[in-house]
Fold:
Amino acid sequence: MFRKVLIANRGEIAVRVMRTLREMGIASVAVYSDADRASLHVRMADEAEHVGPAASSESYLRIDRILDAARKHGAEAIHPGYGFLSENADFAAACESAGLIFIGPSAASIRSMGSKTAARRVAVAAGAPVAPGTDRGVAFEEAREFARTHGYPVLLKAVAGGGGKGMRRVDREADLESAHRNASSEAAGAFGNPEMYVEKLIERPRHVEIQILGDRHGNMIHLGERECSIQRRHQKVIEECPSPLMALHPEMRASMGEAAVKAARAAGYYNAGTVEFLVDADRRFYFLEMNTRLQVEHPVTELATGLDLVKLQIEIAAGAKLPFTQDEVAWRGWAIECRIYAEDPSNNFLPFPGKITRLAEPSGPGVRLDSGVYEGWTVPMDYDPLLAKLAVWAPTREHAAARAARALGEYDVGGIRVNIGFFRRILEDPEFRAGRLHTGFIEEFFARTQAPEPPEDAETVAALVAALHATARNNGVEPRPAGVSAWLTTGRNELLR
Amino acid sequence: MKLDLTIDGREERIEIGNGRFRIGDGPEREASVETPQPGIYSVLLDGRSYQARVDEGAVAVNGFRFEIEVRDRRRWNRQSRGGAHAGAQDIKAPMPGKVVRVLVAAGDAVEAGQGIVVVEAMKMQNELKAPRAGTVMGLAAKAGATVTAGEVLATIM
Structure:
């Protein structure tokens, strides 16, 4: 087994990987940019190396600097996390040439699956159904031709994409050019590749994906599905395992699992990976893409199966065989994850970086928090706004939803905007509780629901607190020691009559 | 002590002191208040427990956010409101971030819905569009500049 592993990532996923490394007795090496010197992943690591300025293109995406850091610290393997270099075939190849183990699939598998258009071709060859689309990147004019032939709405997607970046739904031709331009520019910034392809949009689909796991000895199994239909801007925000759909139609897990394993085998895949599908109203499923890395939502699979996917990834990279067979995988209870983002749900979910002035984190039965932040830390504007993943487990879906809502109620982040209150609304929504999910759920949710009424007297309390706080400030007594009441101090100055 | 508040756009007066308070012409009420941490308040009112946190310009109570501005009546300064020219429309940064592209020049005639400025934060680009047809005046946005939420980037006359 490795003695030291470098994590080529930052934030909550770097912290999550380090936790497993520590449990395995493996030393961890963090990398950081100028913006991340004080970040939690650097504080938690055994060793750390600076890799450049804040811009990820000059730091976390610099293959040469990451490899130099690994050599300097004597790391034997590199875990890429997700995002950044995790689906970069050149990086995987560069690791191998440098004599380092890349904790992920081969460069060749990433090439055939990492590009969305190439993946479509592999999936078709493996017999998986796909939605109509171009099988390569196209310029605006060609996208317009496709849309004229197949009709609107269409979906523009980055060939090198992931996580909803560089993706746009387009409903009419007038919007196509600006959507193509902006998505392409976003893709160039995020992935270093501006190419866009276009697909016919499937209306009201569910997003259901299959976690697969393969070793370097030709064994490949699946760990069941995750439903990730609750999305904003084509990016998942709530995920669960099992899918409510599969709870009603258990035979779908086997058929989708088999299709996923076939597609992954066709790409010569090993390590952990995810095959994503869209499922239409008639429960027909279409191959969407394959993610050749760990997923953000992996904790729900871990909670439902009792496995540690990062540990399995590391063991597979070190040459181990899968320690169990398909028949030995069992699912128990229900897990739900909420992605906690620095963003403002009341303003189109726009990102909201800044200083975290207050942080209270949830705990208690069945709660798992994979966080990368701390009170007093400033969330940089240079990276993805994911702060933490809150995952809960309970015996039933109903209980898991109630538990997630309860945990969110204990979660308080001050100084920046976060989506915690929004998740509480979704989790208590009757449509969500009934499991009637589709990827347009959030848009419809906003259209059909009103903002909830605050509890009785909440506004009165807000007014009182604002007045007391302003008074304490004017008296220059902030910060106040615990237990000293601004309230009574004020009373001594001026009695209410 | 009497203070004037603007709470979610509504004007209110609050009197506080000696463990009691009154809002507007409402009844005088008693509450227990503790500050376990700076900016964090625990309030017991009529036997119910509330958790409040003070943010810049807002108070969150049990997760519900109220925009509140407080003015001490003794320090009351009548502030000039707005000052905007009639018909001028400001285009403001919706989030803290960086200006990546300016799509127009000062003096350009623009149509409603035309892209004016692209702001990026956390790899998310947001194209700000002209709210109506007009002429671009006072183009403050510069490519590469860092902006705060609410900062005026351009004005359409």
